[in-house]
Design goal:
The complex is a heterodimer of chains A (about 120) and B (about 110). With about 120 residues, chain A is mainly β. Chain A is built from no helices and eleven strands. Chain A has strands at about 5, 10-15, 20-25, 30-35, 45-50, 55, 65-70, 75-80, 90-95, 105-110, 110-115. Chain B has no helices and eleven strands. Classes of the chains: A mainly beta (about 120), B mainly beta (about 110).
Chain lengths: ~120, ~110
Amino acid sequence: EPEVTQTPSHQVTQMGQEVILRCVPISNHLYFYWYRQILGQKVEFLVSFYNNEISEKSEIFDDQFSVERPDGSNFTLKIRSTKLEDSAMYFCASSEFGRLGRDNEQFFGPGTRLTVL
Amino acid sequence: QKEVEQNSGPLSVPEGAIASLNCTYSDRGSQSFFWYRQYSGKSPELIMSIYSNGDKEDGRFTAQLNKASQYVSLLIRDSQPSDSATYLCAVWDGTASKLTFGTGTRLQVTL
């Protein structure tokens, strides 16, 4: 069964460093998302991406964050200068349909645990 | 601010019983509703989606939607210890390409 994959599973970085989290969405999906979950808290939306551009972003997704689809399979989240409060699980998700589709089930990858020291 | 509310639990049910999980949402324009299961330290796993008022059954799971009351529920029949997890209610409002999640209800199925 197709699945979303993410690398690395765990990333430890120093405050102020740049990190890139990588995702490979399900191959026939056109809509891609990043969410995060701080330990013990709810899953929070960061950004959605369709047709090589951002569709929607949350207040969390400030200028320190960027997303890219560098090739036909990868989808990346970059944090330019990490802060302590960026420590969280970051989940990539994809869906076949998005805003225009009703059947817009989103499937999540296993996540990357980001620890900022 | 669009909100999705769930009782955090834990909800404790004996093995073989029916577990009932509830969720309310604030945005009347919401169109699609999802239940995810999340084991500790793992990612959300989609178990049910529902779009129309009424019930939708899939195996031991039944999702119920009442748009007038802005209420979604998930019933798990014949609960098993492996069902012990946090159940996340998620709502898609149709105007933005995102899901809004509740905090989740922790379910414990006891032997």
